[in-house]
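This entry is retained here.
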Amino acid sequence: MFDANPAKITITASYAFFPLTQAEIVALQQELKIFGNERGMKGLVLIAPEGINSTVCGTTDAIAEWKVRMRILKNDIVFKDSHAERLVFRRWSVKMKPELITLKQPGIEPTGKHHHLTPHEWKRMMERDDVVIVDTRNWFEVAIGKFRNAIDPTIRCFQDFPDAIKASSIPKEKTVMLYCTGGIRCEKAVLTMEAQGYTNVYQLEGGILAYMEQYPHDAFEGECFVFDHRVALDQELQPSTTYHLCKQCGDPATKTACKSCTKKAEQADQLVRRG
């Protein structure tokens, strides 16, 4: 029986790259749909020929069982945990996708750990003067929080990342440090930059979530955007008390509506008054 006690809600994010056939994908989708529904879990699971990516929530027992099942798929899969007073997704969804993170770049195929830096190694490397830190997330995520001195490519979606790098003035010989929320976008971002001729590109293992777990109130400034009802996590990996979703467009906002929707509403109101 599902225990809905809000004090026991755990959220865990994880991903793993490993090959799956279409038949395996279909079978796994059906199995995981039943798995989550039987345990009262909520969240989003993506399955693709290149592996699995998920952010799910549920009771402590349900998440413990989920981790056991995921480790059968990939025994070294890493989980990033956080907690909330209520379920942070409305439904349980298991979807089949062509890619776990859409890039549409042939040949960019992660196979495992590649130039990963632990949070400790990342912290030490940030102190160097010869490095460039690049945020691989979308512009609205960066607006909520980012690493100190990091470059924001101001992309709308991850597919824009390759062109943003081509248009940048980052020297090919520079040591580049990439980061994202949990690490999965960087798996492809590193390979993308190497394909463009960069030779010293590294990624933060476990992403912002892993770094703030070890070093809260440190080099990451602001809060970390997440794709669920919490909107963002503070430095203690607790649900944000500052941000919520704009009731008009769904973008992050600090008030009832975001700045863009507030401005549009004010302009519309002015037109009505003039008319």
Observations:
- The first strand starts at residue 9 and ends at 17.
- The mean pLDDT is 91.
- The domain at 6-96 is CATH 3.30.70.100 (Alpha-Beta Plaits).
- The longest helix spans residues 22-38.
